[in-house]
Amino acid sequence: MLEERIRMHFHESAQLKQQAAALLAEPLAQAIAALANALANGGRVLACGNGGSAADAQHFAAELVGRFERERPELAAVALSTDSSILTAIGNDYGFDQVFARQVRALGQPGDVLLAISTSGNSPNVVEAVRAAQERDMSVIGLSGKGGGQLTALLRDVDVHLCVPHDRTARIQELHLLMIHCICDGVDWTLMGEPENGQ
């Protein structure tokens, strides 16, 4: 029975990826264009999320600052979940809802991009980070699921909402990682053209 349960996870994940491809390809292309434009013009990407989404934000920043699949110049990205002193100082003095927003207001500039990750779309500190980014005239790329939650109403026409059509957190996180890889590949392709090996 355990093996059947494992097969169910694989099947559900594969089925969701096929379903989401048609729905998310266009907004993913819009997100890639926004990021590539910001980075090409000297902007930076700030990324935030909680728990597994914090890990995704760090993964994304690492792919940009380091590299994804081919050599290229470093790209400016910062994950806002990595500095324990900043997180605990802001959390202690202002509340956990402000741990990302204060960093966005401190580091973000007009033309920068915030990658805001919340599987429910309702994480209070991610929602506050989005508001702070909009105050700073930054564009926002929101990764969510479960119908998008508060992010749906908060994001503007200039922002991009990548909402996974599923209610299960594990499936949503799997799609978020795939979308992050699509974005990294798309940014490289946009800034550098086709790779020499054609992949």
Topology:
Blueprint: H1 2-40, E1 45-48, H2 52-65, E2 77-79, H3 84-94, H4 101-107, E3 113-117, H5 124-135, E4 139-144, H6 149-154, E5 160-163, H7 169-192
Parallel strand pairs: 1-2, 1-3, 3-4, 4-5
Helix pairs in contact: 1-7, 2-7, 4-5
Describe the structure.
This protein has seven helices and five strands, in the order αβαβααβαβαβα. With 199 residues, it is α/β, with parallel strands linked by helices. It has a single domain (2-192), classed as Glucose-6-phosphate isomerase like protein, domain 1 (Rossmann fold, 3-Layer(aba) Sandwich). Helix 2 (52-65) packs parallel to helix 7 and helix 4 packs parallel to helix 5. The model has no long low-confidence stretch (mean pLDDT 96).
* CATH class membership: Alpha Beta
**How many domain regions?**
1
Task: Decide which structural class fits the backbone.
Answer: alpha/beta
Query: Can you summarize the main beta sheet?
Result: 5 strands, parallel
The CATH homology group name: Glucose-6-phosphate isomerase like protein, domain 1
Task: Determine Rg (CA atoms, Å).
Answer: 17 Å
- Stretches where pLDDT is under 50 for at least 5 consecutive residues are none
In one word, what is the shape?
globular
Spatial arrangement of strands, main beta sheet = 2-1-3-4-5
